[in-house]
Design goal:
CATH architecture of the largest domain: 3-Layer(aba) Sandwich
Distance between the termini: 16 Å
Shape: elongated
Radius of gyration: 27 Å
Number of strands: 6
Largest sheet: 6 strands, mixed
Mean pLDDT: 92
Low-confidence stretches: none
Strand order of the largest sheet: 2-1-3-6-4-5
Order of helices and strands: EEHHHEHEHEHEH
Number of domains: 2
Strand content: 5-15%
Structural class: alpha/beta
CATH topology of the largest domain: Ribosomal Protein L4, Chain: A
CATH class of the largest domain: Alpha Beta
Number of helices: 7
């Protein structure tokens, strides 16, 4: 499939041939869902923790005699049944990550790129380069109509462009190796440089 290439100032810069294997697939929500779920679970901190019966601060003295009270037998105020007692089977620090085959993760990225292409939310630019002025770049982005955009560059990101884009709300920039399903789907517009297209095709071939 062919797509027009534009410059940051809005001018045209020819066209580029996009691989059907990356940008021409029929997007499947189940594949995208599984990959996003794998990403978010892997990123989850898992530091939630409650105090168990052995960790709460309370006296260990037997609270009342064993027999003759007419009530249940109890030996400690730390029991979960009491207020401020320990929590029974509460959350403990753990990893929420689970395995997902590398081939499936690669397939998910292809479907994410295809989803953006099919929705008409894919833009190819000649290069992500600027003099390093945030105001000038913000004006160009506004003129192009990008409100929530992700820019994927080549193997590395232009330092001046990254510095200028840092304070622009809704604009993210990643190198090719940082491209991932969650960030692509989260943004309204996916912008890829010509170098980024070549690097993505080399990465996902």
């Amino acid at each position: 499939m062919k797509l027009d290439v534009i410059k940051l100032d809005g001018g045209t810069a020819g066209s580029v041939e996009l691989s059907e294997d990356l940008f021409g697939l029929e997007p499947r929500a189940d594949i995208l869902h599984r990959v996003v779920r794998w990403q978010r679970n892997k990123a989850q901190a898992g530091t939630h923790k409650v105090l168990t019966r052995s960790e709460v601060s309370y006296s260990t003295k037997k609270i009342y005699r064993q027999k003759g009270t007419g009530g249940a037998r109890h030996g400690s105020r730390k029991a979960p049944i009491f207020r401020k007692g320990g929590i029974y089977k509460g959350p403990t620090p753990r990893s929420h990550a689970h395995d997902l085959p590398k081939k499936f993760r690669k397939l998910g990225l292809k479907h994410a790129l295809s989803a953006k292409a099919k929705a008409g939310e894919l833009v190819v630019i000649e290069a992500a380069e600027t003099e390093g002025k945030t105001a000038a770049l913000a004006k160009q982005v506004a003129n192009l109509g990008w409100k929530r955009a992700l820019i994927i560059d080549g193997a590395s990101v232009n330092e001046g462009f990254a510095q200028a884009a840092r304070n622009i709300e809704g604009l993210d920039i990643l190198p090719t190796m940082g491209a991932n399903v969650y960030d692509i789907l989260k943004r309204d517009t996916l912008v890829i440089t010509k170098a980024g297209v070549e690097a993505l095709e080399a990465r996902l071939k």
